[in-house]
Fold each of these.
Amino acid sequence: MSFSDRRNSIIGWLDERLGLQDIQAFMAHKTVPKHSGTVWYFFGGITLFLFGIQVFTGILLLLYYRPSPAEAYESVQFIVTRVQFGWLIRSVHSWSANLMILSAFIHMFSVVFLRAYRRPREVTWLSGIALLGLSLGFGFSGYLLPWNTISYFATKVGTDMAASVPLIGSALGQFLRGGNDVGGATLTRFFGFHVAVLPGITTALLLVHLILVQRQGISSPPSVEKEHQEKGQPVPQMPFFPNFFLREVMAWYGALAVLGILAALFPWELGEKADPFAPAPAGIRPEWYFLAAFYTLKLIPAHVGPMEGELLGMFGFGALALGWALLPFWPLGPRGQERSRFVTGAAIFLLAYLVTFSLLGYYK
Amino acid sequence: MKRAILLLALAIPLSIPLSAADKKNSCLDCHSNLDGAQGKPAKLFKDDVHKHRGFACADCHGGDPSNDDMTISMSPARGFKGKIPRTAVPQLCAKCHSDANLIHKFKPQQRVDQLAQYVTSTHGKQLAKGDTKVANCVDCHGVHDIREVKDALSPVHPLRLPETCARCHADDAHMTPYNLPSKQFAEYRTSVHWTALAKRGDLSAPSCATCHGNHGAGPPAVGSVAAVCGTCHVLMEDLYAGSPHKPVFTAMGLAGCVVCHQQHGIQKPTTKMLEGEGTCATCHQPDSAGGKTAISMARHLRELENALDRSDRILTTARTSGMEVSEALVRQVEARENLIKARVAVHAFREDAVAQPVKAGLAIAAETHKAGEAALGERDFRRRGLLFSLGAILLTMIGLWMAIRAIEDRSKT
């Protein structure tokens, strides 16, 4: 039996059981709009790829990580100094977490600028926003796990902010910390959130998100649709498989190269072991994706009228996040048209705010 | 019955005596409305610890503060003493501060021997001779705005004490009649002790009172200087006591530690003190036994210092390259502790005493240097691995691009 006969026989065996031809037929019909903004479609896939790396490296880290204040720091130190390629796994895990959040933000803004959140993709948008929130939750919970000084005090600040929310704040703080202060119970909880609760919810929501993208196809921007309508032509399409898929794989390789450079040249620092009895070191600040909010809260005076400044800031962020999540439901214009300029303006404003305040938070 | 209980409940608070703060104080009533020297005490007194503890003007000055008529309230018949003469101040303060029963009501651990100490001090002895220019309680603690020592605004708070002593002791005009120098404070401000106190904010760092005493302040006797320094520098004192210098210095009437380290302007000791024209050379010729010992001790110290610097450099390079070298850095701290031990051992003035910790430090320094080299080797391995991986990724991407082009070209034809 020749090699090709043997291959065909294996494929035939699998096809009989898995229906490979149906999948192939389905993929052959799936297309992706081809226009100047097609490059932005890659970021959803890059985010997914980085999530996959997170899962893979996370499982490897689990082989050695021990979630207790007495052992957490030492176990991470053991991983990066004694375990073969442990430094690479830990560094890739940390860097890919950051790149994943960055890629998710780029994906979100590209969806806004390409108007892909519009009807009938409202639920896809909402599931995407929820996934971004979960990614931030991954970042917040994972930050504490090495149990170093910076992560300890950043978690203290973060959970204190959660505890200052009126009515539910006290219960929320207790729930997050497992006590009145950040300690062993917090570490165990955050570990549980990070490796079980959040991955479970994220996987389920990711499936919903991907199924919706699959069912509704990929949206073309209204400007591209209009331009081709005027010419009496349909928007050009690119076959998803293999044309778009191979390009996406190229993008993944690009992301992998960036990840490799960052992990090898700038290994993620471990810092000093957390000492709960030591005073908070100067210059404590959260991860970059919380910097804009952190810096804004620093600028708000302690009291604004009868309200506490921090609380006012948190209400502001809550309202902003809610308003942004409800973007597909924003009121239409007087003639029933979408307020595209207003949405673009709001997105540019939000992007400028996030970039500027993150930079200010980093450098000031 | 209910009415009786109600009346009883109302009567209980009324039966509690008014606190001193609530009592009438005609002194403050009048003096707070006066300007200048007459009004100043009343204005200052609001921050005074005695006021907060329930004491009032009459507790020191006598008189009857319950009467608004100054001819009565400030009459000798009512015990009014007026301004307290400087010679009477210590005894007046001691009336309460030497009374353990009274003081311990407010501060159970407060000492009550201040007057007993003061009379032994140079200040106390001079005052007893009628010299009213010397310091008494109020010169250091303040008069009407006395604060607790731990209060940062108190003139005797550890951070402010040197300036308080310097008010008199840095005043040439004040010191000349006593044949005392006035440069101590200026010298102290150049010392390691001042750096620790004023720049690092270390409240336990030595200031004037640490060596001279506070209430019993006086210059330490020549023979007891080592004991004074030894209250903090215990090991140095022990080693010095067993060293060949001790009997010689004692015989020559030299004041131990200060012979090499000075009195008030104590500098950070360096290995240079042992070398060449350093401190040792002021007494020892280089070819004498003492000179040779000094040079050999310096050689040992230099050897360890250089080894530690080499390890520091390589570990810093490794750390800034992102390598995890925290274990080696902890070991490096242990090696530095050996350097400290060796520097302490210098006070034995024997080469072998210094050589022992130096040997232990050198062994650790060699180990940390090796760890640094290993980290840099690992860094280079990672970089080579990265280069290889990037090459493989690039080739794969080129392959993918060529495959895409081939597929798209095929579909066009």
Amino acid sequence: MLRVEHLTKSFGGVKATRDVSIDFPAGSLTAIIGPNGAGKTTFFNLISGHIRPDGGKVIFDGRDILGLSSLQTVRRGIGRAFQVASLFPSLTVREAMAAAVTSHRGGSWNILARFPAVHLRDRVDEILELMDLAPKHSVLSRNLSHGDQKLLDIALAMATEPKVLLLDEPTAGMGPDERWRMISKVHRLWEAKRMTVLFIEHDMDIVFKIAQRIHVLKYGAVLAQGTPDEIRRNPEVIEAYLGTDHRLAEAVAAQQSGTSV
Amino acid sequence: MNLEALTACLGSGSCAVTQLSTGLIIGMLLFLVASGLSLIFGVLGVINFAHGAFYMLGAYFALTAYQATDSFLAAMAAGGLGVALVGILFERLIISRVYGRDVLMQLLVCYAVILILDDAVKMVLGAEYQMMGMPEVFAGAPIEIAGGFVPGYYLFMLGVSALAGLALWFGINRTRLGKIVQALAINPQMVGSLGINTTLLYAGIFATGSLLAGLAGALAAPIRSLTPGMGLSILIESFIVTVIGGMGSIPGALIAALLIGFTRSFGAIGFPLFVDGAMFALMALVLVLKPSGLLGTRAAT
Amino acid sequence: MRPVLRDGLLALLLLLVLLAVPVLFPQPALRDFLIYVIAYGLLAMSLNLLVGLTGLVSFGHAAYFASGAYGFGLLMQSGAVSVPAAMLLTVGGTALLAFVIGAICVRLKDIYFAFITLAFQMFIHSVILTWISLTGGDQGLRGGIPRPRFLGIDLTDAMTLYVFCAVVFVACIVVMRQVSQSPFGYTLRLIRDNPARANFLGVDVPRMKLCVFVLAGAMASVGGIVLALFVSGAYPEFGFWTTSGEAIFMIMLGGTQLFLGPLIGALLLQTLNHFVTAYTEYHGMVLGLVILAITLGLRRGIADFVYEQMTDRAVRRSAARLDAGAAPTGSHAPGSIKDEVA
């Protein structure tokens, strides 16, 4: 469904993305992890058309989408939720969703009808149910709790009926309980829709529990990729996260293999 | 359009010199006002729509002081410092409440102050045109330069405004205070957390900007007739200058101001009906081609 | 009640009020006052399509007001067209003007958009001042505006003129209301709140901005037509930046979020001007102090303020009800949720 080949991007002298090649099969649930500054958000920006790569290809649904604007990638089917929820503060949840769905269905130029169009209500309700936002449908977006704002952020991305969904740190800013609630909703969403989902995440427990595959980025390049088990045992990954304090790394490795120090 | 007259003037030594000098002083006055505007916008992020009113106040303060003391120096001081004081009051009492608020709020607040100041001047000094007249010291014969005649006062104005411009440039780029001000423009919170009194700085910046406008008004007083509405046209023109030169850029304001000044002076001969139109067309052109202005620093699209 | 029906009834009510007032209070001064409110109300309401609905702050909206007045005046003076035809041509011509200007302006953001709209307006103003043979220069359109009969309507009668203007006014309000409550209107709200995200939801932001810019210009020109009809002339002040400034002030005074806020602001401003000029020649000072009180004190328009007070009370009441009746929600122990997943 989505494949990137030899993607590179530099900002001035900083190589934010270095020769990244990854294949994301249709319907997969993949986690992108890595220490801060590893270029994860830049990677998403390159895929969604927010910035242009210096080199490489992005192949989506069989077609090269290099050079397309972010507007065009959305129309092709790439949806995105953001690290900091990007909402419409003065609109209620329902209004924002209805407007998003209206825009996707091509109705945003309609001056003659009244908003919201009746025939879109089912779609709006469906997404709100999926994201557990239905009880809050009349709340102003700016009055939502942080967690609900992140949910609305994802719901808005869902309005564009994406084939690929990019979630940039969906659990950012949440406490442990809320994080599990959020990620279980993401998981349920994925299972219901069978879209290709990529998510950036920092909580390792969540990543290892949920993701089918994990790609680890460090300094813009792919450090490792594989199943959660493979990644968990990968010494380079351990080193990337815990640094080169050998005793600590040894302790972790020992713990992984079942022996104690 | 009268392009033959224009080319004739450019060819003739005396006409060219006259128009050049006129354009220069129009430009330099504009430069003073516009650099104050640019300074306030560059550092405080506020567009001071009331800036023209400060120019007007400077002229009236100078007039009053001159009539009271017969001293030109007092007039200059009253114009500059008096308006600086007004600027501080304006900043502390009113502008500080609309920092970070949207432009409409700032516009409205400044519009209100313009209305109030215009009427206040009308109340105290009357709405009729007033003249300050040329001080004794400059009332001599005009000086001959390169075949044309330039009033001595023009040279004085050029000198003072050039000095002010240099002082401003030097202050910002070569002093420690200037570095702090530059930092303030980029990251006010950081500057604040370094223990520097940002409130004082903000007031100071506003005072400096208003001082420049007031000084320009005081300089203009001997050669223009005073009326409460005189702030209006200088406001529009200084906006055009800051847009063309670039908001936040002092050198840009200089270039743009001179450009406008010469457009005015030579335009009065060549295309008198289209001078205003030409200025706005220039502004529109810059906004379309390079919205941040010739030397501006803030992005626009 | 369905929204369309409700809005229709409210429009009818507005029209009835407008028609009843000069009947109940027959002073011609009141009727004149109301026509000013109508003309400037249209200017302010149309500007709010840009400011309040789309987040586009234009400093140069009076250009289209002036275009309406001068266009209509010139067409009527030519003697070649009837009143309705002149109105349609003027609105169409202004729409074209707004299209050309808007196409250049909407590419710019925020304060630069404001400046370039101002630049275009002042350019048009200087054209009005200098093209004396066409516009009469700073004296305004000379010779008055003829009002030939059309469809049996004689606009030389003051009351007929008033009724005609009131009907046209309410029709325009209905149009603007429909636009505001349509899918197009809500897409504009998306653009106002978060243009980047709107873009990322597939919205063509520049094209939409241009469309509403043209619409707003067309509506403003109707205001200019009304004023030109009433004063039987057109003056350069119609296109001066102070007129644009007053329009913005009317919006802020009344409120940007309530649909009729700008109209309320126009009414308040006209009332203020009327009373203040009656008592003192320093109405600028009074106006300035009022503006300061509202912007620094209330921090939002009067209508918005009142509306918010009322809705706040309603929200607080319903929140209290929710608290009283809601069942306590327990939180899951961390372990159990984790086990639900995967």
